[in-house]
Design a protein that fits this description.
The chain has 202 residues and is α+β, with helices and mostly antiparallel strands. The chain is built from 5 helices and 11 strands; from the N terminus they run βββαββαβαββαββαβ.
């Protein structure tokens, strides 16, 4: 996967509901950039749905395929988190999390019933949100003299870089995501400028 310049993800949060024998499954899909992002969303949903018996989830972050997690949150092993992750992966998307909140309906659904309910609710939520293609970016920290501001910003704009943070003082520092497929061009242009230091961010 590492040789790709783009990845697909979802653009905005969505939700969908699935019912089976009285149990209600509400799936929430949303874009995430980090595990911390995900944890915040999980806390919000737990506060919004305190009476739900389970908050099962799966997420996949990054483009190397190694950063993912799934949880059955008390459901029988393999009946919730894995089917949810399976839906994320079947769409070939990343930087995405799906949390399925379950309200108990009084009837046991059994393992096949649970797998179907979590899988279906996750699929429904992912169906109603647009999938978008984004550039894979490499994060850099760029330090420069205030007088170079326009030149640096012009390069950022020209190469479609994402500014994540900036400190504008006499000496400026911006944290930017540079598209992987245009990295050499951006770095060459920045190196041509005086009083500009470029460092790869951790």
């Amino acid at each position: 996967m590492n040789d790709q310049d783009f990845y697909t993800t979802i653009e905005k949060p969505s939700s969908a509901e699935f019912k089976d024998r009285g149990s209600k499954f509400i799936a929430f899909a949303f874009p995430v950039e980090s595990a911390d992002d995900f944890k915040k969303q999980l806390q919000i949903l737990k506060k919004e749905h305190p009476k739900a018996v389970h908050h099962c989830f799966a997420y996949r972050i990054g483009t190397d395929g190694n950063n993912f997690r799934s949880s059955d949150d008390g459901e029988p092993s393999g009946t919730a988190g894995k089917p949810i992750l399976g839906q994320v992966d079947s769409k070939g998307i990343t930087n995405v999390a799906v949390i399925v909140v379950r309200y108990w309906g009084g009837t046991m659904l059994g393992v096949p019933g649970l797998i179907n309910a979590y899988k279906t609710s996750a699929a429904l939520a992912l169906q109603v949100t647009p999938v978008v293609e984004k550039q894979i970016e490499v994060n850099y920290s760029i330090e420069f003299d205030y007088t170079q501001m326009n030149d640096v910003m012009m390069v950022m704009k020209q190469f479609n870089c994402t500014i994540h943070a900036n400190e504008m003082k006499l000496f400026c520092n911006i944290k930017a995501g540079i598209p992987k497929n245009r990295l050499d061009g951006v770095l060459n242009r920045l190196e041509d400028l005086q009083h500009v230091t470029v460092k790869k961010a951790g």
